[in-house]
Design goal:
single chain, alpha/beta, TIM Barrel, eight-stranded parallel β-sheet, 13 helices, 8 strands, 13% strand
């Protein structure tokens, strides 16, 4: 019996060590200043690459309008596949254009499969406050956390007042938000600055308590800047770097999209959450992990 008890204890310890090694939530990584790598949750109803004209109003020849795009689809099975990929620390579910609470439930359930290689973090982007109002946004923050997600992203924060309002939603639903001031927090509050006015107020916004991730939406910022395309891109890059300075100062994370060509540069610059998309996502993450010493 003694030998059996000892053997059982050894097995238990081994299992715990294995589980600990596989655990890869973003919060422990960010707390140590390490980079987390993630992917957009793929829309399973998206048209295949190269399917020109899908969802567009008419082709080059002025024919009949193309069929409308189908509703985005996210399933438990699709999430399970993501959960089994050891490269991913987090999954980013983009519901900004079409909010769907059932998608959050499906992704949360699938990512928690027993086949998961690690405990993937699920971060959900919702429509901006300016789209549907403060009440709807606050209700969605609660709904998403109740559905099992780990974080909520509120995009298109226009100024310091709207940033304060957005953060009040997290406090209002009593979410235990991780930040340097609350290192034991378990949930993620992410704000995105995608407007020139918000960029000018970046210092004051970064100083607000309760932010886990502050990011510059580089593509949207370029559109907001407008004018010459190259100048807009340069301005958006400058804004991205300015926000990065503030996130480093406050020791919070900064998320940015990346690819195989620029991920090594973004790691060296100090972004703590790099987000990939498409068929080359795994290749880009492998490069990024190598650059980050992971």
């Amino acid at each position: 019996m003694k030998h059996s008890a000892i053997r059982a204890a050894i097995i238990t310890v081994a299992v715990l060590v294995t589980a600990s090694a596989a655990h890869a939530q973003v919060i422990p990584l960010w707390s140590q200043g390490k980079v987390a790598f993630g992917v957009y949750a793929p829309n399973e109803n998206a048209p295949p690459p190269g399917a020109g004209g899908a969802g567009r109003a008419g082709g080059a020849g002025g024919g009949a309008p193309a069929a409308p795009r189908p509703k985005p689809l996210y399933t438990v099975g699709g999430a399970e596949k993501l959960a089994m990929n050891a490269l991913y620390d987090y999954v980013f579910l983009n519901l900004e254009g079409a909010y769907d609470p059932d998608a959050v439930k499906a992704m949360s359930q699938g990512l928690r499969t027993a086949k998961a290689t690690s405990r993937k973090t699920l971060i959900v982007r919702i429509p901006p406050i300016s789209a549907d109002g403060a009440d709807a946004t606050k209700a969605r923050v609660k709904e998403i956390f109740d559905a099992g997600a780990d974080g909520v992203t509120i995009p298109h924060i226009r100024d310091i007042d709207e940033a304060r309002l957005a953060l009040s939603f997290f406090a209002g639903v009593k979410a235990d938000i991780w930040s340097p001031a609350n290192p034991k927090g378990t949930k993620i509050a992410m704000l995105m600055l995608e407007d020139p006015t918000a960029i000018t107020q970046r210092v004051a916004i970064a100083n607000l308590p309760g932010i886990s991730v502050l990011a510059c939406g580089i593509g949207s910022l370029a559109q907001a800047i407008g004018g010459d395309r190259d100048a807009a891109r340069a301005g958006a890059e400058a804004g991205t770097q300015q926000v990065l300075v503030e996130t480093k100062r406050m020791k919070i994370a900064n998320m940015l999209t990346a690819n195989a060509k620029d991920v090594e540069t973004r790691v060296k610059e100090g972004f703590l959450a790099l987000l990939m998309q498409g068929a080359q996502a795994d290749e880009a993450i492998k490069i990024g992990r190598a650059a980050a010493g992971r």
